[in-house]
Design goal:
By secondary structure, the protein is an alpha/beta fold. The protein folds into three domains: 140 residues, no CATH class; 354 residues, Alkaline Phosphatase, subunit A, CATH 3.40.720; 80 residues, Arylsulfatase, C-terminal domain, CATH 3.30.1120. 35% of the residues lie in helices and 15% in strands. α5 packs across α6. It starts with 8 loop residues before the first helix and ends in a 12-residue tail after the last helix. The N terminus and C terminus are likely disordered. Bound molecules: calcium ion. Calcium ion binds next to loops.
């Protein structure tokens, strides 16, 4: 495995110590064998770091922008003694990974020396630096991490067993959580399907694109003041990644255009995907569900009208449909490997959304029983995908898998855990989602298996964060509402989304509960531990301290007037800054006699 020599190692070993930036270990008086052993041990980390280091070459020329991981790079080009050693040691990693990875380096060369060197930079050294970096630059695209984004439909915060569910088991998800990270203060940007998907796709508030409730038939979309489909000119994470060499595939529910009678929406591939396979709520090739319950002799069909939305159409048991998407994603991943491309994959299963059709031999009683059986079956079918990634070294060491839900649970089916509310509501149960992030070659070792209960962020942060993980700069013509929290995702820090997080309810969901007896707030904002909900005009504020009252059980607005005034003004201003939908008019129509009643917990 080891090729070449560590030139000058003995000479440098006597002059300086070496420090591994992965383990932090100081290798006093290191010898060749020790350096090689450290490199081999940390080769997986090298693959991760190479992306950022190579991608940041421009910053490497500027001390103010350089980080410690560039130190090796600096030494490689500038220090008359240490340079060759640093390069050679990193060359060990290069041999193991096929890339230049300037990670292990000589310590003890202070920055002033670098500044002094920079003053005297001449063209010869500059050319040398370019020559040294060029292979890494060329290899950067090849070494970018693969991304798998699993987005589950209508699953509650408390439905994974690693998030406290004791009524069902999700061992495949749990295994990823044990080897990765759990985030317990993660949100989606809407309590309902389409806008939540819009935010994850664009990195922006979905209101910007008038996707503020689930996309329905043409007339109902107009009634509610929502778009018929996501404007293809909207930013798209997949498109950005594709422009940087990624193979991009969408497998699963789409629901951002192409459903019911809206049969002229753009195909999914217009949003930056090389390939797609969807369900009844998307254009193009699709899996449509057959149904079978105990006692049936012939399978039934549901959503058969969706054949008008393009094909080819493959009919398969709804109880197996997550496996169908997995079976399409696997050859796509293998083809990407053959093409020497990293991949970005959406796996967006919809089988835990009602109606619930578990396998006949796993039938259960009642709505929740059926839901839990489908949940366990979905987890089982994930196993094939996770096992493939985990057992393929090149994938295991360089793939990030993210798993969350698109909105809170349907009442009576999933569980929001300790939180109030459900799907379509701005209480925590409607918008807080479990998030599991797995990537043994990417996540900080000391964070593995832990829960991050501090970082508050949302799905629209994932596009800029995934670009950050991949070392890809935000395109100049794209402005995200989300923020780059890649270091948080990888367990290196616990930063939160810095700005307040805002939500607007779906225009058609002013009430909830039996007979619409519960009147819901229109807007919500989270800022620090404060959560405020109110009407469009700022009236009827509800204020909760989520650190003390995560269940939003005690409205303390009357005790914190200044906080209420500040947050109310912020969320009302934010709402006015976004395109309107027909929520205000529909709300008045729906509940004219109930205005003024205080919402009640449900
Ligand atoms: Ca949903």
């Amino acid at each position: 495995m080891i090729r070449g020599t560590i030139r000058g190692a003995a000479n440098i070993a006597s002059a300086v110590s070496l420090k591994c930036f992965v383990s932090g270990e100081n290798l006093e008086a290191p010898d060749t064998a020790g350096i090689r052993a450290c490199c081999r041990e940390n080769a997986r980390e090298c693959r991760r770091r190479s992306v950022r280091e190579v991608a940041g070459v421009g910053r490497a020329l500027m001390p103010a922008g350089a980080n410690r991981h560039f130190a090796g790079l600096m030494h490689t080009g500038i220090h008359p003694d240490a340079s060759r050693t640093a390069l050679s040691v990193c060359g060990e990693c290069q041999l193991a990974t096929g890339r230049v990875v300037p990670r292990h380096t000589a310590s003890g060369v202070p920055w002033p020396e670098f500044a002094q060197w920079k003053k005297g930079l001449n063209m010869r050294l500059f050319c040398l630096l370019v020559v040294l970096l060029l292979p890494g630059l060329l290899a950067a695209a090849e070494s970018r991490p693969n991304i798998v984004m699993v987005f589950i439909d209508d699953m509650g915060w408390g439905d994974f067993s690693c998030f406290g569910n004791t009524d069902a088991k999700t061992p495949n998800i749990d295994r990823l959580a044990a080897e990765g990270l759990r985030f317990s203060q993660f949100y989606v940007n809407s309590p309902i399907c389409s806008p939540s998907r819009c935010a994850l796709t664009t990195g922006q508030y979905p209101q910007r694109w008038k996707i503020t409730s689930f996309l329905n038939n043409r007339a109902d979309n107009e009634r509610r003041g929502v778009a018929q489909w996501l404007d293809p000119s909207a930013p798209s994470l997949a498109r950005i990644l594709k422009q940087h060499g990624y193979a991009t595939g969408h497998f699963g529910k789409w629901h951002l255009g192409g459903q019911r009678d809206v049969d002229d929406a753009p195909p999914i591939t217009n949003y930056g995907f090389d390939a797609s396979l969807t369900n009844f709520e998307g254009m193009g090739p699709k899996l449509l569900p057959l149904t079978l319950k105990p006692g049936d002799t012939e399978p039934g069909k549901i959503w058969s009208d969706a054949v008008r939305l393009g094909g080819p159409v493959t009919w398969m048991q709804r109880s197996q449909i997550t496996g169908g998407f997995v079976d399409a994603a696997l050859p796509f991943m293998k083809q990407a490997a053959e093409d020497n491309k990293p991949f970005y994959i959406n796996l967006w299963p919809d089988d835990v959304h009602s109606p619930f059709w578990p396998p006949v031999d796993k039938w259960a009683d009642g709505k929740r029983g059926l839901y839990l059986s489908v949940l366990e079956e979905m987890d089982r079918q994930f196993g094939k995908l996770f096992d493939h990634i985990g057992s393929t070294p090149a994938l295991r060491d360089n793939t990030l898998v993210l798993i969350c839900s698109d909105n809170g649970p349907e009442p009576g089916a999933g569980s929001a855990g300790p939180f109030r509310g459900a799907k379509a509501q701005l209480y925590e149960g409607g918008i807080r989602s479990p998030l599991v992030v797995w990537g043994p070659g990417l996540i900080a070792r000391d964070s593995v298996g832990k829960e991050n209960a501090l970082s508050v962020f949302a799905a629209f942060d994932l596009p800029p964060s995934i670009l950050g993980v991949a070392g890809i700069a935000r395109p100049a013509d794209v402005t995200f509402d989300g923020e780059d929290l890649s270091a948080t995702l990888l367990g290196r820090e616990a930063a939160s989304h810095r700005a307040p997080l805002f939500w607007r309810r779906p225009p058609d969901r002013k009430t909830a509960g039996p007979m619409g007896g519960v009147i819901l707030p229109d807007l919500a904002v989270r800022d620090g531990n404060w959560k405020l909900l109110c009407n469009y005009d700022g009236s009827e504020p509800q204020l909760y301290d989520l650190a003390a009252d995560p269940a939003e059980s005690s409205n303390i607005a009357a005790e914190h007037g200044e906080v209420v005034r500040t947050l109310t003004a912020a969320v009302v201003d934010w709402n006015h800054s976004m395109p309107a939908d027909n929520g205000p008019a529909l709300g008045e129509v729906n509940v004219p006699a109930r205005r003024g009643r205080r919402p009640t917990p449900n």
